[in-house]
């Protein structure tokens, strides 16, 4: 218990000030175990999405590896490094972690404390995809983007959902943004509150976006089943690569202090 307060009215006053003290922590990684990756929590993706889905469907340019050059623990932080290799057929390497079948939830509060990279062409993302028994039918099965950032527009972070009716292919995705002027210099908590009725997005507890369920239609609200967490840094692609990639600024670093999920 964090506080030992015996005066009743002070207990009442403080009750609303520490929201996560009122919630139950159901899953977390503080990245301080010294063991990486924690295979009970994460799977490292390797490759570039080929065959059949090169660039993971977004024309991204990176190749994901499990090399310590691209992903490691450092001083209690998860560090993802993106490198440029001018003399290689694989020009860009990076890393991607998923908690599929190791951390999957329906509803809850998801918090990720992170420091973001800048640099034109970088595309760090903290997001969630459905944990289905078969192949994901995107966008029908849904997607939740806790935080996305593209390096040509430094400081602007975005939260979104993608469904069959509202998705990036049609430009109808339900998205909003907030400016975080020191996102590349300081850690911030990027989070969602996900209930049976609504998903809301916050940065350091400040609400900036919400999406409400209007009915039980799968095409608009596929968010009644388990989803898992994904952490990655893509390079280029249909969004981050609109203005090209500035290879002279590499390497780039995405740092994660913790991932915490509350029920």
Question: How would you explain this protein's 3D organization?
Answer:
The chain has a single domain, classed as Jelly Rolls (Sandwich), CATH 2.60.120. Strands 1, 3, 4, 5, 6, 9, 14, 15, 16 and 18 form a 10-stranded mixed beta sheet that branches. Strands 2, 7, 8, 10, 11, 12, 13 and 17 form an 8-stranded antiparallel beta sheet that branches. Mean pLDDT is 91; it is low at 1-18. 4% of the residues lie in helices and 40% in strands. The chain has helices spanning 8-14, 237-240; strands at 25-29, 43-44, 62-64, 71-74, 77-84, 92-94, 96-98, 104-105, 108-115, 122-130, 143-148, 156-162, 174-179, 188-194, 198-203, 206-212, 227-235, 252-262. Strand 4 (71-74) and strand 5 form a beta hairpin. The protein is mainly beta and 263 residues long.
Mean pLDDT: 91
Which CATH-level-2 architecture? Sandwich
In N-to-C order, the SSE pattern is HEEEEEEEEEEEEEEEEEHE
CATH top-level class: Mainly Beta
The computed structural class is mainly beta
The helix content is under 10%
Give the radius of gyration. Answer: 19 Å
Q: Tell me about the biggest sheet?
A: 10 strands, mixed
For the record, give the distance between the C-alpha atoms at the N and C termini, rounded to a whole number: 18 Å
What are the defining features of this structure?
single chain; mainly beta; 263 residues; Jelly Rolls; eight-stranded antiparallel sheet; globular
Question: Helices, strands, pairings?
Answer:
Layout: H1 8-14, E1 25-29, E2 43-44, E3 62-64, E4 71-74, E5 77-84, E6 92-94, E7 96-98, E8 104-105, E9 108-115, E10 122-130, E11 143-148, E12 156-162, E13 174-179, E14 188-194, E15 198-203, E16 206-212, E17 227-235, H2 237-240, E18 252-262
Parallel strand pairs: 3-6
Antiparallel strand pairs: 1-18, 2-7, 4-5, 5-6, 5-18, 7-17, 8-17, 9-14, 9-18, 10-11, 10-17, 11-12, 12-13, 14-15, 15-16
């Amino acid at each position: 218990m964090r506080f030992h307060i015996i005066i009743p009215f002070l207990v009442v006053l403080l009750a609303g000030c520490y929201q996560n003290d009122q919630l139950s922590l159901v899953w977390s990684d503080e990245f301080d175990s010294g063991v990486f990756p924690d295979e009970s929590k994460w799977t490292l993706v390797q490759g570039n999405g080929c065959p059949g889905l090169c660039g993971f469907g977004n024309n991204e340019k990176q190749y994901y590896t499990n090399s310590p050059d691209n992903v490691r623990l450092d001083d209690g932080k998860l560090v993802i490094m993106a490198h440029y290799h001018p003399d290689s057929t694989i020009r860009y390497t990076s890393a991607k972690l998923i908690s599929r079948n190791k951390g999957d939830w329906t509803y809850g509060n998801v918090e990720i404390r992170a420091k973001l990279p800048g640099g034109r062409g970088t595309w760090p993302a903290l997001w969630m995809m459905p944990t289905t028994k078969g192949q994901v039918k995107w966008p029908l099965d849904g997607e939740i983007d806790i935080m996305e950032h593209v390096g040509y527009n430094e400081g602007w972070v975005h939260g979104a959902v993608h469904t069959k009716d509202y998705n990036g292919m049609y430009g109808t995705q339900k998205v909003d943004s907030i400016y975080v002027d020191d996102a590349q210099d300081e850690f911030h908590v990027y989070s969602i509150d996900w209930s049976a009725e609504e998903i809301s997005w916050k940065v350091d507890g400040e609400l900036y976006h919400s999406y409400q369920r209007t009915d039980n239609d799968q095409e608009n609200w596929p968010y009644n089943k388990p989803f898992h967490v994904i952490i990655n840094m893509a390079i280029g692609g249909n969004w981050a690569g609109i203005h090209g990639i500035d290879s002279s600024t590499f390497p780039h670093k995405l740092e994660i202090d913790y991932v915490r999920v509350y029920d």
